[in-house]
Amino acid sequence: MPELAEVAYYAKQWDAGIGQHVTKVQLHPEARIFRQADNLAEWTDLLAGRRYEERWTHGKQMAFRFGKGWLWGHLGMTGKLWMAERDHVPEKHDHLVIHLTRHALVVTDPRMFGAWRWLSASAWATHEAGLAPPILSDAFTKGLLNDFLKRRARTPLKALLLQQERFPGIGNWMADEILWRSGLHPNRQAGSLSPKESGLLWQKCRLVARQALRVIGTDWSTPPNSWLFNHRWKDGGQCPCGTPLRRASVGGRTTCWCPRCQPATTETDGLT
Ligand SMILES: [Zn+2]
Asked: How many angstroms does the Cα of residue 243 sit away from the middle of ligand 1?
């Protein structure tokens, strides 16, 4: 599932089309990625002749402005955006192709868990006003995180970090990375953190988001070996500290942690 940085990476794939005008739209109206689009029949007319102006991302969401309206979407599990030749002929999973004067913008999504909508300028303003502060914005403060930890005091940290209404764009690997860097066990209850631990968690949320955007979000580079990322995917992985990594389901998601760097406490519910 694409997270913050992967979403930023895919959104950039259409950048070469900025400044070009829409000449034609081809789409598969039955594709499930349009299940939330209430005006799909009008997309061709709505988009025709409009100029592709800018991209926008927020957590797992992305949007692209054409004239004053926005094409909004998310990638689900298998969605990908890429840039094709102007005369690209859509293949089976290319459910949306926006032809521009020199290129074509393509949405490919084999499993179709992604979703796409067209938002007018006013619908866009309403949508944007309701969003949580991005992790890297000034509005994502220590106080904001603290309040959330207190409000969800009994939630394991791993499950907490996956809640998009507070941590937009954080998914499974980023949550594990943040907790590992914070030295916090994934099953610790959110309400059990000391002020120092909660400050550290806030700092690592920002650090991991920034580094992920720089490394993966730019050109999908492989993160350095000093990240948990490179060690967490396969059984038998070792923490850079030399300890075998542990793996279990926490908050309903496969979670990886180092029992030495992230020690169990009385609040980790017996999970060590
Ligand atoms: Zn370790």
From this structure: 5
